[in-house]
Give the backbone structure.
Amino acid sequence: MESGTDAFANVIQRLPPRGSSSKDLFSGNQQRTQELINQNEALSCYTSRRNSTTSNANSEPQEVAPQFVKFARDSSKYWYKPNISREDAIALLRNAPPGTFIVRDSTTFANAYGLVVKVNQPPPGVQYSGPNGEELVRHFLVEPTIRGVRLKGCVNEPVFTSLSALVYQHSITPLALPCRLLIPDMDLQHMEHQTPAQQQLLQQGAACNVLYLFTCDTESLTGPQAIRKAVSSLLAKKPLPKPTQVHFKASLQGITLTDNTRQLFFRRHYPSSNVSYCALDPDDHRWSIPSSTGDIPASKRIFAFVAKRSPSSADNQCHVFCELEPTQPAAAIMQFANKVLGGPGAQQPAVTRAI
């Protein structure tokens, strides 16, 4: 374990519980709240309601599977705040983890939306004032087009058939955004966010020793399906690969692997923006470690993360590990990693649906 670095299990115990409530910006106005709920239920009409014949963006819409669009739409009651002001949006997000977002109706551009996102770093040329600085709350305009909606001013951004489709796709890959969106499973106004001390702890990260088992190319595949493919490929190998002990560190910057013996590599870093998924093996396979004393072999849980092959690549790789130290179980490692990376597992029950 790296000197001065907190263990995953201890760090998780020090993070705040979910579900603590805070003052609701719309409290005391039940009628208005019901109106917002009704508006959220009508999100399926975004495309027709927001279409504009004056837009020049007439490219074919990006395809997003209907079940994923439905998942994003079902959670819209948490992230769609049509009448929240710009100032209230900043106040709501400035203490939130990176990737937290809300969507509001634009008050400047007709039939457009404002996407407000908490990010890791301020835009170029803007001075950084701290983890809770207003400069870390970024604003993006979602404009209507002939065929749907898209982020304005981003040439590499496709058109999406609906706002929910745009939100879901950006929870998988950031595209032109500074970070991936974190689809919430509860109202942001009822969430307790980390204190500055806890945010500093997340910034520094935590680390422990694990066994590196295997890396599998998964092309565009991510999520549980990618882990299933990688673990199946691993277990199908004859003989099984020899595991290598590595130092596994997760922080806001990403995941860093260090092979202190340099058997396979020295150090590999996967930026948080390149990591699309990390979780336990969904089929709960175990890795058997022979005992040096002749006892029954130890059965260790398998976990993995999916990341781009390189920052410029569109293809993914799934990196497979198993727990090693009894005090650092795989579940605690993944729980902490998902907290700092804002990926599946950080929020439940949306762990396996955001894929």
